[in-house]
């Protein structure tokens, strides 16, 4: 199975949702970087939610404690797939994680929208 590639430096490697599903089955962790509000509306099972951005009256702003919050829960050697709503924020989050020397981080292309669009299972918070 050639779905696992090593990330080199801060080069973001994007995998599609089927590869993501396969990787999660193999034990990768899913880091959902959407806002808490988005996450509560639906998310992948066993997803960790650490928002990369917050919604404020002025618009979205980057979570200044994103890396600190990730490092409190995950190790730099953990196998991670990072996702968001459509695949944009997750690219930035993946870049930040790679720059912070996380070794095995992949970006999920298409985000939650693509996951749902393919009929994959989601969980909703009550």
From TrEMBL:
<dbReference type="Pfam" id="PF00581">
    <property type="entry name" value="Rhodanese"/>
</dbReference>
<dbReference type="GO" id="GO:0003824">
    <property type="term" value="F:catalytic activity"/>
</dbReference>
<dbReference type="InterPro" id="IPR044684">
    <property type="entry name" value="STR17/STR18/HARC1-like"/>
</dbReference>
<protein>
    <recommendedName>
        <fullName>Rhodanese domain-containing protein</fullName>
    </recommendedName>
</protein>
<dbReference type="InterPro" id="IPR001763">
    <property type="entry name" value="Rhodanese-like_dom"/>
</dbReference>
<feature type="domain" description="Rhodanese">
    <location>
        <begin position="27"/>
        <end position="124"/>
    </location>
</feature>
<dbReference type="InterPro" id="IPR036873">
    <property type="entry name" value="Rhodanese-like_dom_sf"/>
</dbReference>
């Amino acid at each position: 199975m050639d779905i696992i590639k090593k990330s080199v430096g801060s080069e973001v490697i994007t995998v599609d949702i089927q590869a993501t599903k396969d990787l999660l089955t193999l034990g990768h962790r899913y880091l959902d970087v959407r806002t808490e509000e988005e996450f509560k509306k639906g998310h992948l099972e066993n997803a960790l939610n650490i928002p990369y951005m917050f919604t404020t009256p002025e618009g979205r702003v980057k979570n200044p404690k994103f890396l600190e919050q990730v490092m409190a829960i995950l190790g730099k050697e953990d196998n991670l797939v990072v996702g968001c709503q459509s695949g944009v924020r997750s690219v930035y989050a993946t870049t930040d994680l790679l720059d912070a020397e996380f070794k095995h981080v992949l970006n999920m292309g298409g985000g939650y929208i693509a996951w749902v669009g393919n009929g994959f299972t989601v969980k909703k918070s009550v």
